[in-house]
Structures are given as C-alpha cells and as structure tokens.
Amino acid sequence: MSFIIKIPKAPNSIQKGYPLKNVLGPEAIKYLANNISHVYSDFDKNGFTKTAKSKIDELEFMDRARHIAKSLRPYLPERYEDAAKILINSLSPPVVETEGLGLAVLFYTPHSCFIADYGVDKKYNNDVDPFEISMQAQYEITKRSTSEFSIRPFLIQKQRKTLARLKKWTKDPDPHVRRLCTEGTRPRLPWAMRIPAFVDDPTPALPILEKLKDDPSLYVRRSVANHLGDITKDHPELVFEICQRWLEDASKERKWLIRHALRYPANKGNKTALKLRKAAK
Questions:
Q1: pLDDT for position 100
Q2: Is it the case that residue 265 has pLDDT exceeding 90?
C-alpha cells in the first residue's frame, strides 16, 4: 500500500480532559516525522522524534509548536529554502470546508513557527532573501490550517512587501487565503504577537478590509469584522467612520459585519457604537 500523507485526528473543540496542548503530542510528532520522511529520504526520523519529544510534557500548546519547529531545524537541510520546500511537499491535501474543521488542523502550527523563525532573515538562507519561498509556504499552509501567526513577523519587518502580496491574495479563489489577508493583519490578534505599527496606525491594512467587506464567504467577512473590532480598542472613531460609510446601500450580510465589528465599544456603552449597531439591523 502506498504511503498517504495525513494528519492525526483531534476533537472538534477543546474538551474536558483533552487540553489543547495534546494536539501536538507524541502522535503528532510521529505523523510529522512520517510525512517528512516520505518526501525527504535523508530525514533522520528517529533523531527528530527523540529531540521533539524531549521535555515536551512540560510545555503548553504554542511552546510545543515552537519546540517542534526548533527540533526540525537540525534534521532538515541547512539552507532554509531547501527545508521550506520539503515542508511544503509534506503537506496533506488542502481543506475545502471553512467551518467545523476542529482542532486537527492545528497540527500545522509547528510548520508556521518554522517559517516565522527561519524564513524572514536571509542569514538562514545563504544570505539570499527567502521572502518568495516563505510566501509560498504560508500560502500553502493556510489552505490546510492558517498562517495568520507566521505572517506577522513579515508584516513587522517587511511591511510594504508583505502587504503588497496580501493585497494580491484578496482576489484568490480560496477563502482560506483571503481570510489570511485580513486575519493576519489584525493589530491585536489573540495568541499572536501584536503588530505595533498597525496598533499605532491601522490605515495601511484598510484597503484589504475594503476589498473583502462583501466577500461571499462568512468565514472571511467574520475576519473583517474581528479586524475592525481590534481597531476599535485604539481608534474607535476611525471604525465608526468606516461603519457609517459602509452602511450606505449595505446588504444584510454587511450589516451583520458592522454589528459584529462594534461589539466591544457597544458593550462599553459607547453611544455612537450603539447607534450604528441599531442602524445596521
């Protein structure tokens, strides 16, 4: 029987007795080792497995993801671009659904950590800028899971170049890729590093929100709303102006987006937010 690249099963949501960190336990390490060894014959599966399992019990989810990514480094080619291509080739088929994917797709969090840790600086790539292969890797990973965390170092260190790529991706046929454009640029994305420049001035990412506000996928529109919700915490008046403008000829889908975006200031009793939410019903 031929080998099939796949990922381990996991619950649909966090459950009692199954902490999130268990998604990246010994079984996930085993699957990761098998998938990579299938596409990279020189991979020391046993060596990687031993390194990755070392001290993993004491780590929580994101620390496990970073530890596994760091453990991969010695067992993949030294040149980052070669290592990234192996990771891309080891991915399972893209997912089609946008809802109900559960926790299983978090299997690819170490892959994203690897890109974030080694894919920005050219010192890991024989002094050649690895931007293109890093974008390719994140494009593929997000079609199976998400690259919303790994894209952030690129936005911090290479804002103009990364934003230009994301603006192109707003036209991509895959809703997972389009969602990355707005979710990855959120100033205060939960679990992720903040983007200080966007906390101070969110306007560079606003053209992305404009392009995606009427996206056919609720998955994407919800992300637009959550991005605006982030901005309300630092620049509420800017969001109020945007929502007021978007109310003109707004569909019921866009009205839902506006209501969703204004939850935070509305819950604080802000009169403008309450008025806008009422107008969006």
A1: 72
A2: yes
Both tokens of 265, joined, read: 């200031």
Task: Answer whether residue 270 shows pLDDT above 90.
Answer: yes
Q: How would residue 67 be classed by pLDDT, with cut points 50, 70 and 90?
A: very high
Query: Tell me: the pLDDT tens digits for 92-107?
Result: 999 988 787 789 999 9
Domain residues of the chain, as ranges?
Answer: 174-188+205-281
For residue 1, what pLDDT is reported? 41
The Cα–Cα gap between 87 and 94 comes to 14
Q: How far apart are CA 24 and CA 252, in angstroms?
A: 40
Read off the pLDDT of each residue in 67-87 and give the average, rounded to a whole number.
98
Is 107 in contact with 24 (CB distance < 8 Å)? yes
Q: What is the pLDDT of residues 105-159, one digit of tens each?
A: 999 999 999 999 999 999 999 999 999 999 999 999 999 999 999 999 999 999 9
Tokens of residue 149, six digits: 């965390």
Q: Assign residue 55 a region (left: φ > 0; alpha: ψ between -120 and 50; beta: otherwise).
A: left
The answer to whether the beta carbons of residues 186 and 230 sit under 8 Å apart is yes
**Got the DSSP string for the chain?**
-----------SS-BTTB-GGGGGSHHHHHHHHHHHHHH-TT--HHHHHHHHHTTGGG--HHHHHHHHHHHHGGGS-SSHHHHHHHHHHTPPPPP--SS---SGGGGGHHHHHHHHHHSS-GGGTTTS--HHHHHHHHHHHHTTS--TTTHHHHHHHSHHHHHHHHHHHTT-S-HHHHHHHHHTT-TT-TTS---HHHHH--GGGHHHHHHHTT-S-HHHHHHHHHHHHHHHTT-HHHHHHHHHHHTTT--HHHHHHHHHHTHHHHHTT-HHHHHHHHHT-
For tokens 């994301």, the residue is 166
